[in-house]
Amino acid sequence: GRVAAEAARGGALDVLHRVFGYDAFRGSQQEIIDHVVGGGDALVLMPTGGGKSLCYQIPALVRRGTGVVVSPLIALMQDQVDALRALGVRAGFLNSTQDLDERRLVEAEFLAGELDLLYLAPERLRVESTVRLLERGAISLFAIDEAHCVAQWGHDFRPDYLALSALHERWPDVPRVALTATATEATHAEIASRLKLQDARHFVASFDRPNIQYRIAPKNEPRRQLLQLLRSEHEGDAGIVYCLSRSSVEKTAEFLVKNGVRALPYHAGLDARVRQENQARFLREDGLVMVATIAFGMGIDKPDVRFVAHLDLPKSVEGYYQETGRAGRDGLPSTAWLAYGYQDVVQQRKMIDTSEGDAAHRRRLAEHVDAMLALCETVECRRVRLLDYFGQKSEPCGNCDTCLSPPASWDGTVPAQKLLSTVVRLKRERNQKFGVGQAVDILLGRKTAKVIQFDHDALSVFGIGADLTDAQWRSVARQLLSQGLLAVEGEYSTLVLTPESSEVLGGQRTVTLRKEPERVAKAGRSGSS
Ligand code: ADP
Ligand code: ZN
Fold it and tell me: Which family does it belong to (predicted)?
């Protein structure tokens, strides 16, 4: 075809200019492309927005045959293919959304050598007829997008990806390039071994996104806090607000609309057409705020997303990094803001306890949450911690909340002992289960109906915590929970001690806590946190 012929003549840089209209390669694109054009396998780790697509699209145009791209993003294939076709690239896709006629047409194009790129859903490769089809055509390379989906250790495992190890056996001479924006050392190693990419060259880009300002705030009244953020810093900006549940998405979107923000909801429970329409509007129009569950965003390429806000704690640092990475792809200053509180920790721990899967699976989930909590509770630079999680060393950034207003840490041993002693005393109540609210009321010496009903005003710990506010006590409880010095169990989130709690109670262990910014600590009632 025209484009491919030109490509072969002019080489990679020429394709970059003529087909894609860009001046120069970014980062290590050139190196990766040269390596793959030369027939080498590659494992590409590059943050979202780094420019992974060109790393397989250009080699596919330069090499003879069709580049086969395996991608889990079925909903985006049509758009990706349309965008490529608009550039004159002969692209097609095969997935479950097509009818038989459409599929036949694409298959015929592939066999006739009329496709530069063929996008495939991973499950298609489990169908023998697809494999036979591929064997009858000429393949220039395999690109495995979102390659972390093959890692069981990771946060986005898809069983269909395991079958991709067979590509190497069937097509030993076809170069393979696996790409992901998610890569802890562990995920990274697992991708290489599961996809039999041990001999692949690794290209690891910096995961730093210097234009994103990371901020993590104690959750007080999350929707009000969010509104405050939007009004003070992001008036009229496009952004994404992530919530854990569908109902919270709905409520938050309504709240924002009521307060004059142009917001749209997005979650899997919405009608597919509404979902698509909202997504299309978000991409097309300026200054819309998408309130969504994490179902939204994978593969979304909107350069001017100015903020990503999380109203609930993400389940892992990888997830957090990927979601926040959707901000500021254009390189301009952007905000990643997360609010989290006591209830988030309780909720995540509960989800793990009740999750399906074996003990090893639950342990993995717990490790992910613990890493996320450590990022939230750190008194160090957020970026240093974040990059460290991805195995990259860096210096304090000057562009995160802890760098901009360093939080103090304080010796929380005595308050921790007070709170844990209260838990010990509550435990003695037969058949009664008390959560953090009751413990805080007791510590503050509040004679609530429930305190009086259970004679808790007669406990020796009653009123011993009047030196701290309600919000401060909840912060203490949250941090003890994060540090594993306190736990919750059962339907009512009853407070219970952990094996480590006794070391604190016995005075063998000190507790260092993060001091919350003043304005939050002063807020008397802590609302939904
Ligand atoms: P990723 O898949 O890594 O998230 P994409 O491949 O979608 O990133 O690229 C992100 C954006 O950057 C896209 O809009 C893409 O067109 C653009 N881009 C990629 N490489 C270059 C380049 N060399 N010059 C200019 N823009 C580029
Ligand atoms: Zn910093």
Answer: Belongs to the helicase family. RecQ subfamily.
Bridge-partner residues for 439, per DSSP? none
Interface confidence, given as ipTM, is 0.97
| CB of 49 sitting under 6 A from ligand 1 | yes
Distance (Å, whole) CA 214 – CA 199: 36
Residue with CA closest to ligand 1 atom 21: 51
Cα–Cα distance between 22 and 53 in angstroms, integer? 13
* Ligand nearest the Cα atom of residue 301: 1
d(CA 305, CA 49): 12
CA 22 to ligand 1 center in whole angstroms: 10
Chain mean position to CA 205? 18
Model pTM above 0.90: no
pLDDT digits (tens, 9 = 90+) for 270-316: 999 999 999 999 999 999 999 999 989 877 889 999 999 999 999 99
CB 504 within 8 A of CB 417: yes
59 lines ligand 1 (CB under 6 A): no
Distance of CA 139 to the CA centre of its chain: 33
Q: Which is it for strands 512-514 and 409-411: parallel, antiparallel or unpaired?
A: antiparallel
CA–CA distance, 383 with 484 (Å, rounded to integer): 24
Residue 499 has a CB neighbour count (10 Å cut-off) of 9
DSSP E strand stretches across 159-284: 176-180, 201-204, 212-218, 239-242, 263-266
For a mutational test of ligand 1's pocket, the pick from 53, 206, 211, 324, i.e. the residue with the most ligand atoms closer than 8 A to its C-beta, is: 53
Give dist(CA 253, CA 321) in Å, integer.
23
User: How far apart are the C-alpha atoms of 67 and 89, rounded to whole Å?
Assistant: 12
* Predicted local distance difference test score (pLDDT) of residue 8: 52
- Per-residue pLDDT tens over the stretch 488-520: 888 778 899 999 999 999 999 999 999 876 543
Q: What are the start-end ranges of the E strands in 226-269?
A: 239-242, 263-266
Per-position DSSP letters for 452-507, written without gaps between them: HHTTGGGSTTTTTTTTS-HHHHHHHHHHHHHTTSSEEETTTTEEE--TTHHHHHTT
Does any ligand 1 atom lie closer than 6 A to the CB of residue 304?
no
